């Protein structure tokens, strides 16, 4: 059994949570340029207003501004109700929002870790729980969640970020298994290093760094093709997938040798 892809984004009703910058902004611009109806969600409403104005000036698909904080479930539910009231339904949920705080054992902070888990794992779960009942009744729809290759295995400076993304991988795998017979498609998105506001705080070399626009193209092409496991850039994500199957002594040697941070 294979899950559904999408022939075109034109006219599709798409909710992007985390649309105000980075990968989310790049995806939103590409989708609006293709004629999609895009609901833009993030906390920074001023950034969303600028994006909506740009879409209008370029005669792109329509933009709906739905400001919210993903860690406040009531705001997520209210935002979805706004979409339902105006559009009558949703074709794609694209959850991009995330928090990255570099943490190692010598500077580990509980509050920073909790904030990371709440935003990166509990947030997506809340959004999925909100939209899923309607998609199940309609026997169609797409749920796409941006995780990270940092969820594959333990990596330096990711003492909270890595576990949050590992949780996303497990969540998406189980969601895919449950939803495959229902007609609802799941897309697990695992980017490598992407040039964004979050990665700008890194003080180390980032192998195979790509732009947000390149990441957006990889994501949207993967969704179109109905792929579950969307990971990129392959030269880096494929290498990390390979490391997962190695015995731990060899794995940690590779990490120190090639990802020395």
UniProtKB/TrEMBL annotation:
Keywords: Oxidoreductase. It comes from the Bacteria. GO terms for cellular component: membrane. GO terms for molecular function: oxidoreductase activity. Pfam families: adh_short. The keyword Oxidoreductase applies. InterPro entries: NAD(P)-bd_dom_sf (IPR036291), SDR_fam (IPR002347). Belongs to the short-chain dehydrogenases/reductases (SDR) family. This is Short-subunit dehydrogenase.
């Amino acid at each position: 059994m294979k899950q559904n892809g999408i022939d075109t984004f034109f006219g599709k009703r798409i909710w992007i949570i985390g649309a105000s910058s980075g990968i989310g902004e790049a995806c939103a611009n590409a989708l609006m340029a293709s004629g999609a109806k895009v609901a833009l969600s993030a906390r920074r409403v001023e950034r969303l207003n600028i994006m909506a104005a740009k879409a209008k000036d370029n005669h792109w698909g329509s933009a709906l501004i739905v400001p919210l904080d993903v860690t406040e479930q009531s705001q997520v539910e209210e935002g979805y109700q706004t979409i339902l009231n105006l559009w009558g339904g949703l074709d794609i949920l694209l959850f991009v929002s995330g928090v990255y705080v570099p943490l190692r054992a010598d500077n580990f902070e509980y509050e920073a870790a909790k904030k990371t888990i709440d935003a990166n794992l509990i947030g997506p779960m809340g959004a999925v729980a909100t939209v899923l009942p309607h998609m199940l009744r309609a026997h169609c729809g797409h749920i796409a969640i941006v995780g990270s290759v940092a969820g594959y295995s333990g990596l330096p400076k990711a003492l909270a970020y890595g576990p949050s993304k590992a949780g996303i991988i497990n969540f998406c795998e189980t969601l895919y298994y449950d939803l495959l017979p229902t007609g609802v498609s799941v897309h697990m998105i695992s980017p490598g290093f992407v040039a964004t506001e979050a990665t700008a705080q890194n003080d180390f070399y980032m192998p195979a760094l790509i732009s947000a626009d390149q990441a957006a193209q990889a994501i949207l092409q993967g969704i179109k093709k109905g792929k579950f496991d969307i990971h990129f850039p392959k030269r880096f994500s494929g290498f990390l997938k390979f490391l997962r199957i190695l015995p731990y002594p060899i794995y940690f040697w590779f990490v120190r040798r090639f990802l020395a941070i």
